[in-house]
Amino acid sequence: MPGKLKAKIVAGRHLPVMDRASDLTDAFVEVKFGNTTFKTDVCPKSLNPQWNSEWFKFEVDDEDLQDEPLQITVLDHDTYSANDAIGKVYIDIDPLLYSEAASVISGWFPIYDTIHGIRGEINVIVKVELFNDLNRFRQSSCGVKFFCTTCIPQCYRATLVHGFVEELVVNEDPEYQWIDRIRTPRASNEARQRLISLMSGELQRKIGLKVLEMGGNAVVGYLQCFDLEGESGLVVRAIGTACTLDKLSSGSAPNTNTHMHPNTAPASNACNSPSKDGKESPLAHGCRSTHNSPVHSVCSSQRLSQNFSVSVPTLIFTGMGSGGSAGKEAGPLRTLLRQQTQTALEQREFPFFTLTSFPPGFLLHVGGVVSARSVKLLDRIHNPDEPETRDAWWEEIRQEIKSHARALGCHAVVGYSESTSICEEVCILSASGTAAILNPRYMREGCLDIGCTDHRFEDPSPPSCGFCHIPYDELNMPFPAQLTYCYHCRRQKVPDVLFTTIDLPSEAAVAGKGCLIQARLCRLKKKAQGETNATAISNLLPFMEYELHTQLMNKLKLRSMNALFGLHIQISVGENMLLGLASATGVYLTALPAPGGIQIAGKTPGDLSNEHISSIQKRINDTIAVNKELYQINPPELAEEGVGSPIPEPRHRSRLFRSHSESSDELSELDLSHGKKDAFVLEIDDTDAVEDIHSLLIDAPPPTGFYSCNTENMPGISNWTSGVQMFTSVRVLRLSNANLTNQGLNKIFTDLCENLLKSFYFKLRSMIPCCLCHLNFTVAVPEEELIQVTVTAVAMTYDKEQTQEKTAEKPVNKGSLEAEEQLQFPLELCADSSSSNIQTASKISGVAESTNISPRAASVDYGSFADRCSTWLELLRLKAHTIRRGSVKTISSLERCSPLQEGRSRSLRSSRSFGGSSVTVVKMTPLSFLPGIRIIKYLGIINMFFIRETTSLREEGGVSGFLHSFIAEVFAMVRAHVAALGGNAVVSYSMKECVFMENPNKNQAQCLINVSGDAVICISETDQESSASTANTGQTGGGGTDGAT
Amino acid sequence: MSVELDVFVGNTTIMDEEVYQLWLDGYTVNDAVKVRMEGGVMDECEASKDVLLSDTMDQYRTFQMCERLLHSPAKLANQLLFQIPPHRQIMLIERYYAFDDTFVREVLGKKLSKGTKKDLDDISAKTGVTLKSCRRQFDNFKRVFKVVEELKGPLVENIRQHFLLSDKLARDYAAIVFFANNRFETGKRKLQYLSFQDFAFCAGQLISNWTVGAVGEYNMVEDMDVDLDKEFLQELKELKILITDKDLLDQHKSLVCTALRGKTKVFPEMETSFKNLSRGLINIAAKLTNTKDVRDFFIDLVEKFIEPCRSDRWTAADMKLYLTHYTNSAHILDTFKHQVVWDRYMGVVKSCIFKMYHD
């Protein structure tokens, strides 16, 4: 079904000087969509051209509308030679394709060139007319909403969660085509940018189709990644969670779901067909035997089989296909399975969810982290239309994950994510998630609206601890773990520690505050090629995982905490080393037993270094005590003593099982045989072990006034104030010393991460008291002897006074309190897990109202609005000035603004004591929310890919100067696109790729950056009413201004 | 092992005012780190030297990237690269255009040319202001000069609007532009005791009273605040009658002396030097049609008036008293017809001398 795309080029400003002789530019613009190109007139001799072009109209299929970006190229006209390109703007028009989002894209876009960066700005207006609205859902996936946010977006309500959607498309990388030998790097990079833009459009459309097949209308937790496989090609892949979302607004009818039968699935399934065969194979016979990967030779060694068991419920012994579902949970499970066969399409056999936080009541139990890794040798992708190899690889991994989850007695995996690490022709594929049991009602249609109160009581566990209860069978445990009766309800069993990849459920009862816990590890490996290399890597992987887990466990104990949330383990491969970085947020769950301390033991009881050992032990005990204080961990003693032991016998038993349930003071007295449980006792048998223990103690706590976490919510802090500072930091370390040991490397790597954190604390000290949230570390080994760490996070201020009050009463009351709240308002699914569970009707209607009043509230250019309201005197003065300016001969290049532009900016300054700015402030955050601010509208997904290159590295301030300006430019372009959509914030922002390459000898460098997020309109919660109306008036004003320029 | 690359970029550009000042003052990164360490910032957040170095480098880079925008401050408000809150923008601009009084004192009245720029290293050595900072300040003067040279309308307002400066700073720049344009001599040894603020005050007086723009009727003339009113300078010649007409001179003297008698300790000195002083002031006025003599205006004031008074140990109050009566008495002279010109002249001279009469 066709649609009409219309674009109008209004003006340019701050263009670069392209003609040295005249110090001016004769600019014109090419507007291209698909194979159609339009041109504007040349605007001679101006750095601030006014084209005011006609509307360029493209009549195109909506499939193209989804796939293609609108390409705008600004050129300098040259009579005698070829026209010089000034730069380009790619505009993703997807946000215009669904009715609820943006209706127009209009604003100033930075003109970007891969060599020169941003070179001025261009004002563009884009509109889309889709013909035949009724039909449009059937032909393409226009209309499916995408969200990067990994929870149900604010101002929506999930009526149905359908499940996992995935897709990948492959292509040759233009950088590696033969033509690359004759064309300039710039042309090559532009081709890459264009291609990736096209591929992500295509991918999104295909995912959209799958969502429609499932009967959904949105993808939440959309995660798109690029694999730059070098010679073997370019893979763009994405996963997400299909949902049916309803907009929370009074009077809006629930979305009608188009029910499509599996049989009518469109042709795009073709690329998925290979997976169909493997799907039916039961998981019972273990993963190892079933695969016939195309890389036959390494097939056996490439698979990571986690053939070791730790007392952590995270690593699952693959061969241990234990009975699967626990008897207790059989009921809901069976319902769910039946459910799945009903709703999910045939090939979607993965009950995976990319969401990390859920509506209350959705998550019943959590089993633990499941992860799978696989080492593959890359081979050229011969036929881009049949990406079956890559599909099969992921299929394999997902099957493994699924079987792990089964082993934990879980039927679903939540907080699921996938990643790769590529070095030369070796690729590590990783997937991880949290095995869980979900409330099946969210997967059944219609059950949410009617009678969900009944469902509520199906599950007897209170929400504050229910998710901690083990989903697996106690008698048939998948790994050795110590179980106790839940410290909260005393009715069901809980493990001693809990690792998860999801966010802390908002209803969970915690004591004290959380903190960021990282395990860092380096492993040297010999340089090798092909299969030998792949084998060597896959042999190293299990040990790395084991060590990372041990480190995590020890650090968790050291902080006196018993659960990890948001666990993310990244293993990055380089030519001569592997890097492992595990990040998570530690927290003390009051439902779980108190963690034991750490016991230091010599090799033999009467070791010679006894004194040494006891001194270390003392340091450890001191650290634990300090940390308890620091994170305010005062678990309620009542739970243990007060309730007159409802089930005495099991409690007794639990005591036997737990190694140390007493406070840390008593620890030193415990005898070894009693405390000898894997993670608790550290044996010092050689110098390495001593080093390890030292490194444990190295991690400095954040300075006073700072907290840190890598999750959406900071456990123990919820009273955010308005201060928000999102940042990205990149550090690259060169290892000059060639013969380093593993220990030495570990130290260097640990210091690198710790120093980064210290830098953040220092830089953000003006925000104290403040919390660094969503600290997302990415490691890479871009070259031999280089370690790159990229961090994106947000610092948020909070009110110190309130926190203390809250935490004081929290541990005691929270559980029961929240349960009550939920019973009172069981009908409302709270979209924002961070906010309180009470969502009153008035609140909702309030949102609805403001939504109706100002659909584009944030597009308002407040500056110019205020400016327009300034007195007529000011305007007169401005006019007089403009006339004066007209006659002035200009010399300095800085002053070559056109009269009109100049006039406009001038008026801004003078009218608002030079504070005014015509640029919309756009907030950015990696979180799904902004403190004190309500999101009233999602405008669409931002997914941008940029390449920047330089051949004058020294002149641009070296590598740091180069990357600094590039990152700043990327931020600027994201902000500009959001502002053009009418938005004023980006939530769930992430920098998914930052590939930096340099060649200092040639004075060259290149960097690729991929960022994504959700563009939104938000308004301050406090003055919602007033700002909504102001915004509305402002909108008209802003529109007028736009028209005038 | 070395840090190859290290950057930190915030969505809202992070700028530390202290580091900004160090950057403006021309400190190298290492020197700035030293200063910051001594300032005790390390204790604030358990920072180490490395942290400080990394932070300082980041900030220096940011400032360098911003510098281009600061050259035309209007751009700062509608550029997209850096998200800087408005109050920060104001701070950035104000500090960038701020200058050292000791430095400006050295170049005041000089031609803002390449030649002067070459002497900056000497000035740097003399004033203790780093060469980098000297260059920035000098370039700022030059930039402002160039821009307002082309503009019509009131000088201070033009500077304020174009460079988004505070009123105070805009006035100072107006003084610098005014001095540079008229090339007033300020460097002579006898003028060394005067500060920039003394001159800035005088410039303000001259701009608002003696320029074309001061009259008010030509509101939109080029250079109206920069060039002195030629007609007025011509008219000043008429004042010579006060010293050439002997009757008038005596009459004037007796009027002044009558008014002053008994009111000051230095009356006898005043009486004896009246004729000399009056001749001095009026000769200055009469010569102002010559560009050369305009340049020497301040040195003439000092030599012909301030020094003689100082050697007679007049206090500032004596000076005020004397000049007030000197000015007012002229109004009573029947035959003296040039009251308007007289007031316009003496008003400025009086307030300039008041300002300049100190140690």
TrEMBL record, chain B:
Any Pfam family the entry gives: FIBP
Domain of life: Eukaryota
An individual GO BP term: platelet aggregation
Species this protein is from: Oreochromis niloticus
Any single Gene Ontology cellular-component annotation: nucleus
Gene Ontology molecular-function annotations: fibroblast growth factor binding
Protein name: Fibroblast growth factor (acidic) intracellular binding protein a
